[in-house]
Amino acid sequence: MRLGRVATTGGPRWVRQAADGLIPVTDPFVAFAEGQEPEDAGPRIEGTVIAPVDPLVIVGIAQNGPAHVSPVQAWLKSPRTVTAGGVDVVLRRDAGGQVAEGEIAVVIGRPTRGLTAQTAHEYVLGVTAVNDLSSPERAAFDPRNFESKSGEGYTPLGPWIDTAAGIDDVRLQVEVDGRPVAETGSRQLPMSIRDCLAYVAAWSRLGPGDVVMTGAPHSQAPVGPGQIVTVRVAGIELVTAFV
C-alpha cells in the first residue's frame, strides 16, 4: 500500500494511492499498532499531496564505510526542514556549494523499545524517498552538521510511504535534470538498514512518524539554482526544483 497525506480545509488527511485517485484512510499508525492495515474512510477525494509525515525526530546515518577512520554514526536533523515533493527549495547563497543526497527514508510505525536488527521490520511502517540536501563546505566550520543541513526546505520528503517494500532490498535512483547520477539500493549501504535502526534504537527510542535517513554513500550529486533533482525509492518519485 502507498500511503500519504493531502492538505484539506480541516487539516492533513491520510490517503492511499489508488488507480482511480486518492482514497481517504484511517490513521495508519493506529492500525499498525493493532497489526492491521488502515481501512478506507470515505469516497475518493482531491487535494494537494504534502509530506507524508510530520516527524518529531529525524535521524541521519553517516555512512562512513570501511575506509573511514570512524565507525558509522548517527546525527539529528531539524524536522522543520521537511518539505513536500514538488515544492521549490531556495538554495542558500551564503553556505558554499550544495549537494543533493538521495536516500532511503524509513518511517517508524511504533515505539522502538526492544528493536533489534532481527526484528527491525516489525517496527517500520514503510519506506519513502528523501533528499538530504547539504552544504558540505560548512562542515569545516561546523562538524556537527547543523549549518550544513539546516537550510529551510532542505529535507524534501515523500510523497508516499510504501508499506510493502520491506527494508532489505530497496532500490534507489537519483537523477539531476533527467540525467541518471546514481543507481543503487539498500544492499549497497555499508551498514544495512536493519543495523542502522538497531544502532539508533540502542541509544534513543523513536516513535510513530519519526524518520531515519539511511545514508547516501553512493547517491550524491552537486546541484545549483535552476536544476531539478528526482529521487526514486522503491518506485516512489520525489521531485524537487532548486531556485
From TrEMBL:
<dbReference type="InterPro" id="IPR011234">
    <property type="entry name" value="Fumarylacetoacetase-like_C"/>
</dbReference>
<dbReference type="GO" id="GO:0018773">
    <property type="term" value="F:acetylpyruvate hydrolase activity"/>
</dbReference>
<dbReference type="GO" id="GO:0046872">
    <property type="term" value="F:metal ion binding"/>
</dbReference>
<dbReference type="InterPro" id="IPR036663">
    <property type="entry name" value="Fumarylacetoacetase_C_sf"/>
</dbReference>
<dbReference type="Pfam" id="PF01557">
    <property type="entry name" value="FAA_hydrolase"/>
</dbReference>
<feature type="domain" description="Fumarylacetoacetase-like C-terminal">
    <location>
        <begin position="67"/>
        <end position="236"/>
    </location>
</feature>
<keyword id="KW-0479">Metal-binding</keyword>
<protein>
    <recommendedName>
        <fullName>Fumarylacetoacetase-like C-terminal domain-containing protein</fullName>
    </recommendedName>
</protein>
